[in-house]
Amino acid sequence: MSLLLQADTLSQAATQIAEDVASDKEITLMSIIFSGGPVGTTIMTVIFIMMFFAIYLYFERLMAIKAASKMDQTFMTQIKMYLQQGKLENARMLCVSTNSPVARLIEKGLSRIGKPLNDINIAIENAGKLEVYKLEKNVSLLATISGAGPMTGFLGTVVGMVMAFHEMAASASNKIEMSVLAEGIYTAMMTTVVGLVVGIIAYVGYNHLVSITDKVVNMMEVSVVDFLDVLNDPV
């Protein structure tokens, strides 16, 4: 019985030690991140703001582009059928009721029917540029953050090293304690790490958005070509 009690006591002690170690690690990590002094804390705050905006911009644009890519597969089939039957108003109403970049391009083309084909093509191209601008809105900010994040982290590194060497130069004794240099080292190391993380997140997010935007643009181009083909040979 006593052996069981001892084993239970040892188990509880081990669990408590593990929890204390985990808590110490968490506190140590947070203290490392935010123990860079006023300058280091300011730089770290700027980097975290960049991270927040990068994540927000990525998901906001991702949802917008995904919404723009959704289109009824029968849309162009119905447009072709209406054009072949001469039902331009029906085709125009279908475009108005469909909320997608392709529908807005086709509607612009329908509004120019009766004019030379080149004029119709130019009108669609101009409308297409506007739709592409809407898709790419604020995406360039991700590219900016992907470069600015690591550079801001590197700035923190330089500032941290300057602080460390300043403490060394200002020390009255020849023996330098690690606690004297801790603030500068924290700033130098953590700003670089966090800045690189922000840069990676923004870079990957930017390239993914560019990739799916290209797919939507390609879908728009294919639909416009189909529309112009019907105008050339509506029968």
Per-chain topology:
Elements: H1 2-33, H2 37-69, H3 75-84, H4 88-97, H5 101-111, H6 117-135, H7 139-170, H8 178-232
Quickly give the structural class.
mainly alpha
Given the structure, what is the number of helices? 8
**Which H/E pattern describes the elements?**
HHHHHHHH
Shape: rod-shaped
- Unreliable spans: 1-14, 16-27
Mean pLDDT: 77
- Compute the number of structural domains: 2
Tally the beta strands.
0
- How far apart the termini lie comes to 95 Å
The whole-angstrom Rg is 30 Å
Helix content: over 70%
The largest sheet, given as strand count, sense and whether it forms a barrel, is: none
Strand content: under 5%
Question: How would you characterize the overall build of this protein?
Answer:
The chain is mostly helical and 235 residues long. The chain folds into 2 domains: 120 residues; 66 residues. Helices cover 86% and strands 0% of the residues. The chain has 8 helices and no strands. Helix 2 packs antiparallel against helix 7 and helix 5 packs antiparallel against helix 6. The longest helix is centred in the last third of the chain and has 55 residues. The N terminus is likely disordered.
Short description:
The protein is mostly helical and 235 residues long. It is rod-shaped, with a radius of gyration of 30 Å. The N terminus is likely disordered.
